[in-house]
Specification:
Layout: H1 7-13, H2 39-50, E1 54-61, E2 68-75, E3 78-85, E4 91-99, H3 105-116, H4 121-132, E5 135-144, E6 147-156, E7 159-165, E8 174-175, E9 181-182
Helix pairs in contact: 2-4
């Protein structure tokens, strides 16, 4: 699935999240997990680049080489696979890999449930990063007890935490005495 594009096309696809400033005398950015961009930033960058797309999966991989994020999205009835280099925070490749209709089994059920949910992956990752006090390195869809759950792996203080976010279990808006809606506190 994650085939690289020819160089010229990959260069046109390139977009980056600004890296944190380097410390004095430091030539390479710190590539520890704690220095990674927020998962919400990566997902937002890919959604912005693809246009009318909805990211549903992000995973940190290295496959024996340089680390990269593999990000999967749905756009125009197609599953898109986008690769973001961890070190440069640039999109290396982005391409449609299959029609959504070709998904099968758990992947099909998970994506169908996600398409019905109202919560974008960026919001679920943001909740998990805040709750877990760290950076998301992966987020994916699972059906648990018949309900969609977004499982986010967050690295905090060197430990990996798995946080589950139920996208359709948001607090209901409360009505004030005068009948106007107000947000929960």
């Amino acid at each position: 699935m994650g085939q690289a594009m020819p160089g010229a096309q990959a260069a046109r696809e390139s977009e980056a999240i600004e890296s944190p400033p380097a410390a004095a005398g430091e030539s390479e950015p710190d590539m520890t997990v704690g220095s990674l961009s927020s998962g919400t930033d990566l997902v937002a960058m890919v959604e912005r680049r693809l246009g009318d797309a909805r990211v549903y999966d992000i995973a940190l991989n290295d496959q024996g080489g340089a680390p990269f994020f593999e990000i999967k999205a749905i756009k125009d009835g197609q599953v898109w696979d986008t690769v973001v280099d961890v070190k440069t925070r640039r999109i290396v490749s982005s391409m449609a890999v299959m029609p959504v209709a070709d998904l099968q089994g758990d992947d099909k059920r998970n994506v169908e449930a996600f398409e019905r949910s109202r919560m974008p992956l960026t919001e679920a990752i943001g909740i998990a990063e805040k709750y877990g006090a760290g950076r998301a390195v992966s987020a994916g869809l699972h059906i648990t007890d018949g309900r969609l759950v977004i499982v986010v792996d967050v690295v905090s203080d060197g430990a990996l935490k798995e946080i589950q976010v139920e996208p359709d279990k948001r607090p209901a808006r409360q009505r004030s005495r005068d009948g106007r809606q107000r947000s929960p506190r």
